[in-house]
Amino acid sequence: MQTQRLEPSGGSAAVPAPWWSIGGTLMIGLFVAYLDRSNLSVGLPGVARDLGFDGPQFAKVSSWALTAFLIGYTIANILGGLLTRRRDPKWIMIACVAIWSVATLVVGTTGSIATLLVCRVVLGVTEGIYWPQQSRFAKAWFSPEQRTTANSLIQYYGQFLALGLGFMILTPFYDLLGWRALFHITGLLGLLIIVPLYLWRLPRKDAAPFPEPAVSTGKKERLTLASLGGPAFLLLLFSYLTQGALFWGITLWIPLAVKTLGFTGFEQAFASSIPYLFAVVLAIPLSRLSDRTKRRTLIAGLGLLIPGLLVVTLPFVGGAMAKMILITLSLGFYASAFSPNIWSIVQSTVHPDAVGPAAGIINGIGAGGGGTMAGFVVGMLYQSTGSYIPGFATLGAFVVLGGISLLLFGRVTRQG
């Protein structure tokens, strides 16, 4: 990606767009963050065996273990965006990475379900505080015309490369070294690589070319529904709730789901990864299409509607390979059409001072709340049916409603 020139607001000197110094650095950080999120999905069979819930309680305890992260994530995204809106995002992110890396290391040493759950909540809280800071960096360092591409680099590629490559990396480590080593390795990545990298590469917020508006009175401006974009914000929030359910409902359980479809060993790792690798490939042309046409809401809405319809058909498709093709097409298109655009939509429809809080509210309620609900839906339907497919199909119907909501949001905002 070539360096472009930005014109700072209120200034005359152009500055280079920090695609790699900020975008690339945060992409690497989010890559490691998602390894810390997904390591439990890979190591769950071994964790269940060693901690004693691999019998009749597997579905119930596993649902709690997988969603404990999302429970903390829900609360912290909202509070993180609100309480940190005047703090420098650089230091917030460094502190969060350090804390969740230590929590990940502790999981690798525990023999207690309670400790596992507490550490996963800590992981969720710190990653929830961390997430809105990325939107603040994108808003402060990239022009409006570049933000879909910038959000793709910062928030998208790290996330989906970690899922696409992570399952292929983590699964062999788990098979070879066991689940405890898996948590030790991912925890040390944060402490030994990401914390020093952020200290070195991330600038302070007062150097940004598109800074957050100053408050002359020294008081925080009141956060209102109007500053979030008005009542239409609720349509946006609901659409994100449904995508959070689809994404986390599949992602939390996909290593075990593909195993029940008959994939084992490297086939299991590859089948778990391929939907996310497909998303990475599709994101490049779709991000460029969004930036050129400015039809971000339409593209994002179709990124929910079409995948939702595909997932609904899963129970009616025979054969493990056919089901995996449907999951790959739906998750890949949803992720590449919806995920890079949604944050550009947020950054262009809420008040500049409310970008961090808005990102926290949307990601907290949407990803955290939707993901927690979906984790239990899939787990409980698996317990009663012996298959993960009914749970996936239920989430598909839900996300269709989210696509309709986002298209309605686009219509309302155009009229407004």
Write the layout of secondary structure elements.
Elements: E1 5-6, E2 15-16, H1 19-51, H2 58-83, H3 89-107, H4 113-141, H5 147-177, H6 179-201, H7 232-251, H8 254-260, H9 265-293, H10 296-312, H11 320-349, H12 355-385, H13 389-415
Antiparallel strand pairs: 1-2
Explain briefly what this protein structure is.
This protein is an all-alpha fold and 416 residues long. 77% of the residues lie in helices and 1% in strands.
Could you explain how this protein is built, in words?
- There is one protein chain.
- By secondary structure, the chain is mainly alpha-helical.
- It has one domain: Growth Hormone, Chain: A.
- The protein contains 13 helices and two strands.
- Strands 1-2 form a two-stranded antiparallel sheet.
- The N terminus is likely disordered.
Q: Any low-confidence stretches, pLDDT <50, length ≥5?
A: 1-15
Assign the CATH class.
Mainly Alpha
Class inferred from helices and paired strands: mainly alpha
Q: Which outline best applies?
A: globular
The H-level CATH homologous superfamily, spelled out, is: MFS general substrate transporter like domains
Average predicted confidence as pLDDT: 87
What's the total helix number?
Answer: 13
Succession of helices and strands: EEHHHHHHHHHHHHH
The portion of residues assigned to helices is over 70%
Give the CATH topology.
Growth Hormone, Chain: A
